Amino acid sequence: MIVYLIRLRKILLCDVLFYLLLVICLFYVCFRINYKVISNYNDSSKMAIGEIESLHIDGNKLKMVLYAKEKVLVTYYFKNNNQVNRFIDNVNLGDKLKIYGTFSRASNNTTDGLFNYRKYLKRSGIYYTVKADNIYLLSKNKKLYYTIKKYIIKRINNNPYLYTFILGDTSYINSNVLKSYRDNGISHLFSISGMHITLISSSLLKLLKAMAIKEKGRYVFTSLFLLFYLFLTGLSPSVLRAVLFFLLFSINKIYYFHIKNV
After folding, report:
1. Beta partners for 132?
2. Which end of the chain is more exposed for a tag (fewer CB within 10 A), N or C?
3. Cβ(44)–Cβ(20) under 8 Å?
4. CA distance linking residue 92 with residue 141, whole number of Å
5. Partners of 56 in the beta sheet?
6. Which of 13, 98, 92, 2 is CA-nearest to residue 53?
7. What is the pLDDT of residues 29-54, one digit of tens each?
8. Helix/strand/coil (H, E, C) string of 118-131?
9. Residues 6+ apart with CB under 8 A from 250
10. In a 3-state reduction of DSSP, which class is residue 101?
11. Whole-prediction pTM value?
């Protein structure tokens, strides 16, 4: 075992490895910049079937993200309060729905420098919005992921800001309020970043140390918790990057590679 760890340390300390990774990253970035994603839907699409990733009801307006062939942003207006209550009682995260409605692309900004709603949705993997006419429930949720998210929502008493700060999901914040944050350039405050991961990991490590847990156990438990948290946030790029660096740091710490942080 020790022999393999020594060999691994030599590989990790090899400059060629980092140059190779740099070249691979540059090729990947160039590919992503020039690669044009073709949506599975078009303006003539009328129907989509998928699972509810997030939903929010504001008065008689329903807004939800449905994961079908790809993510679509769905809006629907209830006719009365009875429809609203019936929907709340029967439909929740992870449920499979069939929707019929009008598909369209989000509008671009008409003035340079202002908020671009189409680009904002594109960063979340959403290329089409749907104004739904009819919604049908096909099946209830059976996935642990959505069950945990529903439990979190229930525990925080539907506080949209608390939910956003925990999971980085802004779908529960009123659209007009969210727009005012974007116009003032402070919408980044709702994003989960490396700072959040640093605070969570540092707090966990200190707590486990106070409980007299051995070093290896502390880093293994914290790594597993962060992977679980990454799963809950929907593999957010910023969280994925921070968790990946913590995992590499943990491996370096546990197996005493003594690779210095740059």
Report:
1. 101
2. C
3. no
4. 8
5. 63
6. 92
7. 787 777 777 788 888 889 999 998 88
8. HHHHHHCCEEEEEE
9. 219, 220, 222, 223
10. strand
11. 0.66
